[in-house]
């Protein structure tokens, strides 16, 4: 199989798969090999919900060079109902309307255009719940 096709057809690239420790129940996204809470090594794969609560956020005014065209932008830490935490850009709302504790939805979107060839990189972004 073509490597690019294999990479694009990996199921976990298109849904939020996390690892839940079978020993203590701690949830990790992305999945880990060893639980940092209990050092367990057995995990079950779970699919995370696409919504969660905003734990914290910041607005980036001095970005890395590849993000200079979208500055300023907000980054947030979201906790899903399963307890997994992830960091992603908050989009589709003004920064002054972002509040800790608000519900946001996770969407798969373009993150950046990479290099001179213009290769598109995709990832998760956080959007307001409609």
Give a brief rundown of this model.
The chain is 5% helix and 45% strand.
Walk me through the structure:
The chain is mainly β. The relative contact order is 0.16. Strand 7 (103-114) and strand 8 form a beta hairpin. The protein has 1 helix and 8 strands, in the order αββββββββ. A 5-stranded mixed barrel has the order 4-5-6-8-7. A 3-stranded antiparallel sheet has the order 2-1-3, with no helix packed on it.
Task: Report how far the terminal alpha carbons are from each other.
Answer: 40 Å
| Largest sheet data | 5 strands, mixed, barrel
Query: H/E series, N to C?
Result: HEEEEEEEE
Net shape: globular
Q: How much of the sequence is in beta strands?
A: 35-45%
Backbone structural class: mainly beta
Tally the beta strands: 8
Helicity range = under 10%
Task: Kindly report the average pLDDT value.
Answer: 89
Annotation field: number of helices:
1
Parts with pLDDT < 50 across at least 5 consecutive residues: none
- Give Rg in angstroms: 16 Å
- The largest beta-sheet arranges its strands as 4-5-6-8-7
What are the main properties of this structure?
130 residues, mainly beta, 5-stranded mixed β-barrel, 5% helix
């Amino acid at each position: 199989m073509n490597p690019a096709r294999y990479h694009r057809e990996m199921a976990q690239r298109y849904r939020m798969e996390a690892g839940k420790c079978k020993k203590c129940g701690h949830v990790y996204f992305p999945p880990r090999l060893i639980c940092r809470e209990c050092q367990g090594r057995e995990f079950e794969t779970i699919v995370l919900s696409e919504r969660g609560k905003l734990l914290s956020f910041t607005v980036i005014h001095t970005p890395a060079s590849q993000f200079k065209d979208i500055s300023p932008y907000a980054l947030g830490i979201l906790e899903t109902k399963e307890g997994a935490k992830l960091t992603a850009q908050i989009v589709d709302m003004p920064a002054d309307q972002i509040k800790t504790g608000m519900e946001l939805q996770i969407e798969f979107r373009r993150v950046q255009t990479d290099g001179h060839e213009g290769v598109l990189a995709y990832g998760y972004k956080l959007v307001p719940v409609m």
